[in-house]
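Throughout our pipeline, every protein is held as a single compact record rather than as scattered files. Such a record has a labelled line for the sequence and another for the backbone structure tokens. This encoding replaces a full spatial description with a residue-level series of whole-number codes. For reference, a complete record is included directly beneath this paragraph.
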Amino acid sequence: MADWIVWVILAVVLGVAEIFTLTASLGLLGAAALLTALTAVVGLPVPLQLLCFAASSAAGLMVLRPIAMRHIKQRPLQRFGVEALVGKPAYVVSEVTGRDGRVRIGGEEWSARAYDETLVIPEGATVDIIEIEGATALVYPRE
């Protein structure tokens, strides 16, 4: 059997194995095997083919895999919806207690409650939004 056929078979086996593992390692080894198959088609001897496989595998695993993993595991850069309001400042429109109150968040008026039910936050105070519970902001006064 020709050398290049062995390398192509190895590349296909590694590619199929990558589908089941999703680690990017076996896929890069499969790509290295395909590159080595090209060197076999050109007619390079087996020791040079092995050298090509080792070099391209090492380059893929040491250079490309960390870059790919960084992009795969990247956390969302921006929060959306009510999740984006947590941690933002708000302005108290009417006195906030553990039961009710109103705050202005970015131009919108929201119902609010004090995060600590024993607090009474006067009108005009600036508060931080600790949590959003339905359509009610749980707030805590800034110090």
Remarks:
- The longest strand covers residues 126-133.
